[in-house]
Design goal:
The chain is an alpha/beta fold. It contains 4 helices and 12 strands. Helix content is about 20%, strand content about 25%. The chain binds adenosine-5'-diphosphate and zinc ion (ZN). The site of adenosine-5'-diphosphate (ADP) has 15 residues, from helix 1 and strand 9.
C-alpha cells in the first residue's frame, strides 16, 4: 500500500479506540519500523501524560520508545520542522486541543507521514475531540479494541471505576477498565 505512494507525499494515520486496546503498542510498532528504515522520526506526547516516564511513550505492556514532551500542538509543528521529520508520531491526542487538527494537516501537507494515537470516546462514551475531527481528515484509520474485563468480548469503551466527574482524569488500571457495549455502564448525571 504505502510503497506505491510517490516520494515526498504526506498523509495522516489515526489509531483510536478505548484504553488498553493497544493504541500505544501499534504506534510504537509503526514508529520502530520507520526508524529501522532510517527515516527521521519525531515522537511527541503531552506533558499531562508523564505517568510512567518523562522521556518515553510507554504502553500498558511496558513497551517504550523515546519521545519529546510538549505543552501545545504548536510545539509539535515547530519541532517537527526543526528536525525536518519525515515521520511524526503523536500519542494521547485527546490531551491536546483542536489546534492539533490544523497542525497535523500542515505537517501532512508538507510531505510528512503523521501518525496520531488517542481515545475516540471519553468516559461517558461520547466522541472525544480532537480525534473525531482527525478521523475525518485522515487517509488511514485503525480502530483498536480491548478485551472486556466483564465478559471477554471485544471492548470499545472505557469504564471509569472512580467517582470523579472531571473529563480529564489521568490514570490507568486504578481508574479505568475496558468494557464492551453491553457491559459498559454510563456514569450517573453524565
Ligand atoms: P492503549 O494505548 O490503547 O491504552 P497499550 O498499547 O498501552 O493500550 O496497552 C495494550 C496492552 O494492555 C495489551 O497488550 C495488554 O498487555 C494490556 N491490557 C491490559 N488490560 C487489557 C484489556 N482489558 N484488554 C486488552 N489488553 C489489555
Ligand atoms: Zn462485556
Amino acid at each position: 500500500m504505502l510503497s506505491i505512494v510517490p516520494k515526498g507525499m504526506g498523509w495522516i494515520e489515526v489509531i483510536c479506540g478505548p484504553m488498553f486496546s493497544g493504541k500505544t503498542e501499534e504506534l510504537i510498532r509503526r514508529l520502530r519500523r520507520a526508524q529501522i528504515a532510517r527515516q527521521r522520526v519525531a515522537i511527541f506526547k503531552p506533558r499531562i501524560d508523564v505517568r510512567y516516564d518523562e522521556n518515553h511513550i510507554v504502553s500498558h505492556s511496558d513497551q517504550r520508545i523515546p519521545s519529546l514532551v510538549v505543552d501545545t500542538a504548536q510545539e509539535i509543528l515547530d519541532l517537527s520542522r526543526q528536525h525536518d521529520a519525515q515521520v511524526v508520531g503523536i500519542d494521547e491526542a485527546q490531551f491536546f486541543d483542536n489546534d492539533l487538527v490544523d497542525v497535523c494537516e500542515q505537517l501532512a501537507n508538507e510531505g510528512r507521514r503523521v501518525i496520531v494515537a488517542g481515545l475516540d470516546q471519553d468516559y461517558r462514551a461520547r466522541p472525544f475531540e480532537p480525534i473525531p475531527q482527525l478521523l475525518a481528515m485522515a487517509e488511514y484509520i485503525t480502530k483498536t479494541l480491548a478485551i472486556c474485563v466483564k465478559c471477554g468480548a471485544p471492548a470499545s469503551r472505557t469504564q471509569r471505576i472512580t467517582p470523579s466527574k472531571e473529563l480529564v482524569l489521568v490514570g490507568a488500571a486504578d481508574a479505568y477498565e475496558a468494557r464492551c457495549r453491553r457491559c459498559y455502564e454510563p456514569p450517573e448525571n453524565a
